[in-house]
Amino acid sequence: QVQLVESGGGLVQAGGSLRLSCAASGRTFSSYVMGWFRQAPGKERELLAAINRSGGSKVRADSVKGRFTISRDNAKNTVFLQMNSLKPEDTAVYYCAATNRVGGSVATVRSELMDYWGKGTLVTVSS
């Protein structure tokens, strides 16, 4: 298994930037495809972006394309989500998740395929 802990959330003004981190336990981190998700109050959890084992990535949500970037540092067992040009509608709890299922990729990641989840970090964007 892998244990995931998100950090870096907080309060930021619209137009600002924030970088979230997801620290993973274990010695097999590099074998996991990782994803960032978010859930706003009253809304479904949505996939934002995913990154493969070697660092290739794909933003999966149109609402954050051009603003959010996912990256990973396997040597540090950490995945990042760089969030720029933040908007009030970005306010949500942000989660990282992991899967090492065969066939997992940045194109196929979705909530149902993720086996391990962090507990989330709250991002609040003010006007």
Overall shape: it is globular
Cα(first) to Cα(last) distance is 40 Å
Q: Give me the secondary-structure category.
A: mainly beta
Series of H and E elements: EEEEEEEEEEE
How much of the polypeptide forms β-strand, as a percent range? over 45%
Largest sheet: 7 strands, mixed
Indicate the radius of gyration in whole angstroms: 13 Å
**Percent in helix:** under 10%
Name a few traits of the molecule.
single chain, 127 residues, mainly beta, seven-stranded mixed sheet, globular
Can you describe this structure?
By secondary structure, this protein is an all-beta fold. It has strands at residues 4-7, 10-13, 18-24, 33-39, 46-51, 57-59, 68-73, 78-83, 92-99, 116-117, 121-126. It has no helices and eleven strands. The strands form two sheets. Strands 2, 4, 5, 6, 9, 10 and 11 form a seven-stranded mixed beta sheet that branches. A four-stranded antiparallel beta sheet has the order 1-3-8-7, with no helix packed on it. The protein is globular and about 40 Å long.
